[in-house]
Predict the 3D structure of the following.
Amino acid sequence: MEELANLMHGFSVALQPFNIGVMFLGIVLGVLIGVLPGLGGANGVAILLPLTFTMSPTSAIIMLSCIYWGALFGGAITSILFNIPGEPWSVATTFDGHPMAQKGKAGEALTAAFTSSFVGALFAIVMITLIAPLVAAFALKFGPAEQFSVYFLAFCSFVGMSKEPPFKTIAAMFIGFALAAVGLDSITGQLRLTFGTETLLTGFNFLIAVIGLFGIGEILLSIEEGLKFRGGKAGMNPKVVLQTWAELPRYWATSLRSCIIGCWMGISPAGATPASFMSYGIARRASKRGNNFGKGEIEGVVAPETAAHAAGTSALLPMLSLGVPGSPTAAVLLGGLLIWGLQPGPLLFVEQKEFVWGLIASMYISNVVGLIVVLTCVPLFAAILRIPFSIIAPVILVICAIGAYTVHNSTFDIVLMLVFGIIGYVMKKCDYPLAPMVLAIVLGDKAEENFRQSLLASQGSLDIFWSNGLVGSIMALGLIALFWPIFNVLWARMRPARAAT
Amino acid sequence: MSDDSHGAARSGPGQRSAELGVAVVMALFALLVIYGSIQAGIGWGAEGPKAGFFPFYVGIAILIASAVNFVRARGESSSELFADWGQLRQVLAVVVPTAVYVAVIPWIGLYVASLILIAFFMKRLGNYGWHQIAAIAIGLPLVAFVVFERWFLVPLPKGPIEAWLGF
């Protein structure tokens, strides 16, 4: 049990007073970021990354990962109380969380969300502890075709699982791919889609898109709705918490399934957002009370929150063991590793044991810390949302501008951010989903690279995506996810027909 | 792209017009992507598929999807509003100052621009007294200055006023 000894050593690192201190700081900042509209895990971590330059890498990663956990927790607060997903992965939480709050059951919904988050994260951390050292070996077998099939599955699930019309999802997603393609082609080194302009040479950075689409777009949407958040009260007290805890074990099956979906989606670079949607969709189909989903069903909160946290947490697994980030926020953390002078990848487990196991151990502790912080401080965080919009809006605009600027130290990026904000506003109003677009911008280059390398290996034949059991079954799953809406329609048509006979 | 003449008779642009407009804009974007891809080459080269290969099909996919969305939007009822003029005015009340803010940052720096932006919003939307406005509009950029320039050592865009103050 060498891992156990490593983990114990990790705990001794993570439990140093300074590290506990940065853990609290990170969680509180993270929840704040998660609560404020327009600030998210990825851009929050990006904005705060410079704060860690003077720390040791271990303390730095503990703090930044805690910001991430905090943002994951915080997203649920705004989703449930204000029907505003603070984070893309908490969109699915609004479906049932907000109706619960409207019925006066905000406390139950929040407790369920936080507890599910905790369970999902814990499941993912245990998984990381057990298999992170092993996973590198397995996934090293992934060729470009397998890698592409994983992306394929992720994007197909977006089309099949999101509540927006499938062709709008497809349009949004492929626009993301197109934006990702702008600039230098990583394989041939050729410029493309720049149309002779210098500003487009480096392409579109996903952070700018994230800050614009989610940050500025969100502010425009809320201002249109009348400058204030219409929110439920956070009726939290120990009694509600205990009652909800007593109720939750009933949903163990949903919870376990969501953990597994979350971990899988988090490891493959699909991330927390599709995991939460997928988990919600499957829970709705599997549940006996599926018809009540969307009207305030506690199971509809448990499913997406568990999956989102499991995915968000397990997104660190490929980042640590392979150097491949599983989510936009993990991508930012990866950037941090490089800045601190660490080379992400399997060698971390050999050369930087203290760093890796310190981080893993800190994940156990910080999720307990996080659960305590959010359960006790919800009213405080909710109060932040009651600061008048005329103050909070310009402040968030300024923070977004600073965040956009610091990505490349370029004022042009601030302009782009605003453009993305307006695009985000119009798209959201017209029912186009933004998450697949952002994910396509992040993963576009990698997906394309794997696709082209696969085709290169097969001399242009698409058969390579069916050439072995692994890649074939992932592709098949992707196709099922893609055509899920059609299956659904067929199923709905068959049912009344059968009822009539 | 959302403002469409069809909606002018009612109290705001229609949702249907907006959706048609968005579909058209997306289709135009798709054509641009396809054009750019063809420029870069969409066939096979020495290193396999050329640079334009992938974006070309991406462009085709956007084109097809926007066509479907366009046809779908035409079938929608035209009574629903995208937003009424009052709402759009509110949105513009944020977009226009933000656009000005973004435009002047390279000239006067981020700190002074932020000060003006916050003050403007507080006066215009919140109608606060000058004392409160001064406290927040000056205080927050100062905090940002200390946090970013001093603690994080991240320089943000500065203008003539900071230069005059010796930074």
The helical segments of chain B are 15-40, 53-74, 85-108, 110-126, 130-151, 160-165. Confidence is low (pLDDT under 50) at residues 1-9 of chain B. The CA atoms of residues 69 and 136 of chain B lie 46 Å apart.
